[in-house]
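User: I'm putting together a teaching handout on how sequence relates to shape, and I'd like one worked example. Could you take Mitotic-spindle organizing protein 1 from Saprolegnia diclina, show the sequence you're using, and then write out its predicted structure as tokens right after it?

Assistant: Happy to. First the sequence, then the structure tokens directly below it.
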Amino acid sequence: MNSSASEVGQAKEAFETVYELSRLLNTGLDRESLGIIVSLIEKGVNPEALAAAVKEMRRTTSNKTLGGQKGQDKQFQY
């Protein structure tokens, strides 16, 4: 196996490990979402800010799904 194929294999293995940790911690993230988050972090996005954004999106989605209280989501209205 050449160096590039070896690096790809290692990257896939590392991602599977991260996904397994995510699953064990009950994050609720699927592979696609986790991949996007990992990619954003690799590009320099602050992990704590990203976690806060994911939590906020889940909260607002949950509120809308459950009927939510009006006026509670002012920060993210479009």
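A couple of points you could highlight for students: Residues 6 and 12 are 10 Å apart (CA to CA). The chain has a mean pLDDT of 86.
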